[in-house]
């Protein structure tokens, strides 16, 4: 079947039913026109993934492999996978990044709790597109264990790398620092042209998108700190009315 | 000494990085970050050259003492050898 993913027509050749249900929201109304990408899973790729996660069903394993196949083909089409949680606030996108367990989900939840007009575009694996006006982040069916996300797209206004700390602070990262931190959050394909395209996309992302390091705890002050630095707005005038009475 | 085929060298965020491609990407994950001297030597040793030729090239490119250049090239060669990047 053909799906509309990240602005492209993607043909997914799955053997298991799992992915058909998983992606139904993205099913294309046009099943006949040519496609940009065809994703399928080789027996070799399936076996490798199965050996890493022996307890998961065949459908689930195939589903992971299919997204990898899609994302490895994205760089030659001006797009790349970013391991991040992307939130939309007032029409603008903000990406939160960090090693597993640093609190991307927790910080995302804090924004949702304290700020109005906020939604998750993709809680874990958005696809980014490089455009002349900056990068765009897309929601996809693949969006992490919390399943946070929606079908939509948002202009990406900032990258925020998270580290746990006792005090909240934020600062801009230099391009060299972003390079170091970004590499562990992107998918490097194997094929040479695709690798070169990925590196060019990463360079463009660093040039076009301001990046920050947020050292944070899990309090409301953490949201205030990242919100004010990334949006340039005052938190007190922007937060949800009466949220101090919520949990 | 010659660096194996199967690496891509690019500028990202003003840094020079090297990333494995193809078969090499299955055994070596991640990226290598090179400083200016490292980037120069990496490019130089994508073609087969001796250690002495590397020292000479480095002295020709930068204003460095021969001993310093020799130490740099040997350190560079050791890192590459230890990681299995040499043909």
Give me the secondary-structure topology.
The complex is a heterodimer of chains A (247) and B (87).
Chain A: E1 2-5, E2 8-12, H1 18-22, E3 37-39, H2 43-52, H3 58-73, E4 79-81, E5 85-89, E6 92-97, H4 104-114, E7 118-122, E8 127-131, E9 134-138, E10 153-164, E11 169-172, H5 175-182, H6 192-208, E12 211-216, H7 220-231, H8 235-238
Helix pairs in contact in A: 2-3, 4-7, 5-6
Chain B: E1 7-12, E2 15-20, H1 24-27, E3 32-34, H2 36-44, H3 51-61, H4 66-82
Antiparallel strand pairs in B: 1-2, 2-3
Can you walk me through this structure?
The complex is a heterodimer of chains A (247) and B (87). Helices cover 34% and strands 26% of the residues of chain A. Chain A is of the alpha+beta class. Chain A has 2 domains: 2-73, no CATH class; 79-245, Rossmann fold (3-Layer(aba) Sandwich), CATH 3.40.50. In chain A, the strands form 2 sheets. In chain A, strands 4, 5, 6, 7, 8, 9, 10, 11 and 12 form a 9-stranded mixed beta sheet that branches. A 3-stranded mixed beta sheet of chain A has the order 1-2-3, covered by helices on one side. Chain A starts with a strand and ends in a 9-residue tail after the last helix. The mean pLDDT of chain A is 95. By secondary structure, chain B is α+β, with helices and mostly antiparallel strands. Chain B has one domain (7-82). Chain B has a 3-stranded antiparallel beta sheet. The chains are: A alpha+beta (247), B alpha+beta (87).
Broad structural category of chain B: alpha+beta
What is the count of distinct domains of chain B? Answer: 1
Q: Which blocks of ≥5 consecutive residues of chain A have pLDDT under 50?
A: none
Number of helices of chain B: 4
Characterize the quaternary organization of these chains.
Answer: heterodimer
Question: Which CATH architecture of the largest domain in chain A would you pick?
Answer: 3-Layer(aba) Sandwich
Categorize the overall geometry of chain B. globular
Count every helix of chain A, treating DSSP H or I runs of 4 or more residues as helices: 8
């Amino acid at each position: 079947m053909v799906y509309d993913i990240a602005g492209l027509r993607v043909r997914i050749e799955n053997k298991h039913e799992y992915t058909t249900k998983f992606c139904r929201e993205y099913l294309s109304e046009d099943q006949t026109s040519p496609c940009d990408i065809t994703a399928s899973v080789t027996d070799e790729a399936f076996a490798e993934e199965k050996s890493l996660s022996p307890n998961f069903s065949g459908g689930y394993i195939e589903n992971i492999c299919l997204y990898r196949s899609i994302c490895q083909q994205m760089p030659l089409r001006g797009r790349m996978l970013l391991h991040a949680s992307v939130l939309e606030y007032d029409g603008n996108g903000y990406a939160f990044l960090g090693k597993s367990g640093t609190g991307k989900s927790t910080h995302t939840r804090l924004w949702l709790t304290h700020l109005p007009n906020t939604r998750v575009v993709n809680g874990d694996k958005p696809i980014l597109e490089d455009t002349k006006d900056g990068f765009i982040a897309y929601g996809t069916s693949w969006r992490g264990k919390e399943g946070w996300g929606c079908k939509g797209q948002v202009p990406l206004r900032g990258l925020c790398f998270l580290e746990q700390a006792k005090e909240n602070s934020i600062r801009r990262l230099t391009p060299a620092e972003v390079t170091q931190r970004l590499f562990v959050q992107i998918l490097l394909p194997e094929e040479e042209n695709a690798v070169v395209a990925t590196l060019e996309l990463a360079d463009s992302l660093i040039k076009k998108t301001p990046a920050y390091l947020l050292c944070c705890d899990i309090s409301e002050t953490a949201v205030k700190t990242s919100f004010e630095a990334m949006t340039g707005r005052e938190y007190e005038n922007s937060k949800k009315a009466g949220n101090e009475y919520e949990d | 000494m010659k660096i194996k085929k199967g690496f891509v060298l690019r500028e990202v965020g003003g840094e020079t990085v090297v990333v494995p491609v193809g078969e090499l990407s299955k055994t070596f994950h991640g990226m290598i970050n090179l400083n200016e001297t490292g980037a120069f030597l990496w490019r130089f040793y994508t073609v087969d050259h001796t250690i002495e030729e590397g020292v000479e090239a480095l002295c020709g490119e930068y204003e460095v003492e021969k001993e310093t250049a020799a130490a740099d090239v040997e350190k560079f060669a050791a890192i590459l050898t230890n990681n299995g990047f040499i043909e």
